[in-house]
């Protein structure tokens, strides 16, 4: 039989001896059983060396943290950095607005500034200001150092001219700038 006792018709004496022998073997193996209960399992790799599971778990945890950090960064990039900053700015603005009192009076500087900064469709004054700023920027780009030098020479005295000289120097500077740009364009492919 599998338990080690004899099969078939057996006398009581033989059965008693076999049972005593089995008990003796169990008692001799009892200390091995106790030792194996409290021992740790030894894990080995393919080459037969012991594996350090604690070190492997630590490395896996660090690797997972780095991967999750990378995934989080890619998720932020996927949503758009500018949109994220805009959303953060909107949240900060909302918190700032919540801290203000509910009633807003006519002398509220924040409200006044906000209303002035808003651009409304069809506002004729806003269009006028944009055109004026564009014109000023265009003039500043067109004027060279020579055109600015002449009025500075005579700024100490009272100027009673009609602006002819200033216009002449501006035309000369503009002509020189156009010639220089044309030259640069002509030699660009060389």
From TrEMBL:
<dbReference type="GO" id="GO:0000398">
    <property type="term" value="P:mRNA splicing, via spliceosome"/>
</dbReference>
<feature type="region of interest" description="Disordered">
    <location>
        <begin position="20"/>
        <end position="90"/>
    </location>
</feature>
<dbReference type="GO" id="GO:0070274">
    <property type="term" value="C:RES complex"/>
</dbReference>
<dbReference type="Pfam" id="PF09736">
    <property type="entry name" value="Bud13"/>
</dbReference>
<comment type="similarity">
    <text>Belongs to the CWC26 family.</text>
</comment>
<dbReference type="GO" id="GO:0003723">
    <property type="term" value="F:RNA binding"/>
</dbReference>
<dbReference type="InterPro" id="IPR051112">
    <property type="entry name" value="CWC26_splicing_factor"/>
</dbReference>
<dbReference type="GO" id="GO:0005684">
    <property type="term" value="C:U2-type spliceosomal complex"/>
</dbReference>
<protein>
    <recommendedName>
        <fullName>BUD13 homolog</fullName>
    </recommendedName>
</protein>
<feature type="compositionally biased region" description="Basic and acidic residues">
    <location>
        <begin position="20"/>
        <end position="74"/>
    </location>
</feature>
<dbReference type="InterPro" id="IPR018609">
    <property type="entry name" value="Bud13"/>
</dbReference>
């Amino acid at each position: 039989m599998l338990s080690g006792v004899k099969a078939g018709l057996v006398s009581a004496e033989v059965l008693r001896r076999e049972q005593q022998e089995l008990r003796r073997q169990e008692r001799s193996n009892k200390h091995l059983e106790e030792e194996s209960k409290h021992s740790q399992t030894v894990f080995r790799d393919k080459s037969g060396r012991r594996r350090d599971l604690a070190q492997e778990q630590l490395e896996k945890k660090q690797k997972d943290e780095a991967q999750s950090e990378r995934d989080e960064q890619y998720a932020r990039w996927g949503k758009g950095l500018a949109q994220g900053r805009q959303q953060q700015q909107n949240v900060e603005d909302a918190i700032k607005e919540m801290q203000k009192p509910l009633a807003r009076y006519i002398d509220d500087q924040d409200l006044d500034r906000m209303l002035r900064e808003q651009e409304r469709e069809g506002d004729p004054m806003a269009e006028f200001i944009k055109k004026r700023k564009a014109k000023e920027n265009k003039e500043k780009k067109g004027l060279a150092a020579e055109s600015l030098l002449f009025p500075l020479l005579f700024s100490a005295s009272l100027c009673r001219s009609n602006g002819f000289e200033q216009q002449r120097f501006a035309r000369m500077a503009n002509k020189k700038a156009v010639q220089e740009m044309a030259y640069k364009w002509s030699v660009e492919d060389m």
